[in-house]
Write a structure and sequence with these properties.
Layout: E1 2-6, E2 17-21, E3 32-41, H1 44-50, E4 64-65, E5 69-77, E6 89-92, E7 95-96, H2 102-105, E8 116-117, E9 129-133, E10 137-139, H3 146-149, H4 155-169, E11 175-179, H5 185-195, E12 199-204, H6 207-215, E13 220-223, H7 229-236, E14 242-247, H8 252-255, H9 258-261, E15 262-270, H10 281-285, E16 290-293, H11 299-310, E17 318-322, H12 326-334, E18 341-345
Parallel strand pairs: 11-12, 11-14, 12-13, 14-15, 15-16, 17-18
Antiparallel strand pairs: 1-2, 1-4, 3-5, 3-9, 3-18, 5-6, 6-10, 7-8
Helix pairs in contact: 4-5
This protein binds zinc ion (2 copies).
Length: about 350
């Protein structure tokens, strides 16, 4: 079968991955599930993996097939699998967790002590077939299209996970600032709108992104290239500040907004990454604010997100590409030229 594989880390996206002919995976464990991939979302994290940014955080052996946002049709199951059978449409949580360790017992799939992460620590879905396990697959409701839903496996679940943490802290009438209305941000905004009665203040540099935000439920929009974000948040909240900030950019400029826009006791959730947090420790003490990280999300949260999608509460705009166009996708995302989310169709 064909697979888009990373052989060496590079900053050059034009020929980052090569399309190799590799063997179709054979199931190694009795809980294994083989998926014929119908859609694999391209993610900014794929660009970061190509650049070698994850090498010091996780074990990576190259060459490796990338692709962690996968959905498709079950092609084969191991002897012990009962959740799905051949022919079932599924979305794949990117982490194959063990189910036995304490974090797994607590439902914290991302903290599993014995996990494999498709497209990050083991082969992923930019290939005709993907090997995963029973604990990672979620059967799709009738009528759901695996190609369209694929990016929710990481982009969606990550945005949902952050929005759910923020929603826990948001009372009706509170304000939540959403920074960056791109691939993840526009999902996070819809999740917030579905789960809270907070006023959503959307921040972006592009007017088209802000128009989308207003369509998706933002009560206020701010072009941060032209307006003072802290000033607008102060106006909107009668100088109280926003209880929660969802930062889908994670640049120095956006993490730097936290002390100026947060209400006392508020949280600045860092979802996008690449920049730094440069605040004096006293900033966190004065106003008791927190920066909180976001790492994908739990299996159960992906189930919840699939429900929101099925109810029509969360819609995703996708662009589709063939496997042979994968480096074009990498390059276009690097230059901010993808509208919504790019999905690669490998089969
Ligand atoms: Zn991703
Ligand atoms: Zn585990």
């Amino acid at each position: 079968m064909q697979a888009a594989r990373l052989h060496e880390y590079t900053d050059e996206m034009t020929d980052a991955l090569s399309i190799d002919d590799v063997d179709r995976p054979t199931l190694e464990h009795s809980d294994g599930v083989l998926i014929e991939v119908e859609g694999a979302g391209w993610c900014q994290t794929d660009n970061h993996i190509i650049e070698g940014m994850w090498e010091e955080y996780v074990p990576q052996e190259l060459p490796m097939t990338l692709g962690h946002e996968n959905a498709g049709i079950v092609a084969e199951v191991g002897d012990e699998v009962t959740l799905v059978e051949e022919g079932d449409p599924v979305i794949c949580h990117p982490v194959q967790s063990c189910g036995i360790c304490r974090p797994c017992r607590l439902g914290e799939d991302m903290y599993c002590e014995n996990s494999a992460f498709n497209g990050l620590t083991t082969d992923g879905g930019f290939a005709e077939y993907l090997q995963t396990n029973e604990r990672a697959v979620i059967p799709l409701p009738e009528g759901a299209d695996p190609t369209e839903i694929a990016p929710h496996a990481d982009a969606g679940i990550t945005a949902y996970h952050a929005a759910k943490k923020a929603a826990d802290e948001l009372n009706p009438g509170d304000a939540c600032v959403v920074i960056g209305i791109g691939g993840l941000g526009h999902i996070g905004l819809q999740c917030l709108d579905a789960m809270t009665a907070a006023d959503i203040v959307a921040v972006d540099l592009k007017d088209e992104a802000l128009e989308l935000a207003a369509d998706l439920g933002a009560s206020h929009t701010v072009n941060s290239g032209e307006e003072d974000v802290a000033g607008v948040v102060a106006d909107v909240t009668d100088d109280d500040g926003a209880q929660q900030v969802l930062d889908f950019v994670g640049a120095d400029e956006t993490t730097g907004l936290a002390p100026d826009v947060l209400a006392a006791g508020g949280d600045h959730h860092v979802i996008g990454y690449g920049g730094h947090v440069h605040e004096p420790s006293q900033t966190l003490v004065d106003g008791e604010m927190a920066f909180r990280g976001t790492l994908v999300g739990k299996y159960a949260e992906l189930q919840e997100l699939v429900s929101l999608v099925d109810r029509g509460d969360v819609a995703l705009h996708t662009e589709q590409y063939g496997l042979d166009e994968i480096n074009t996708v990498a390059e276009r995302l690097e230059h901010g030229e993808i509208e919504g989310r790019a999905v690669v169709l490998p089969s």
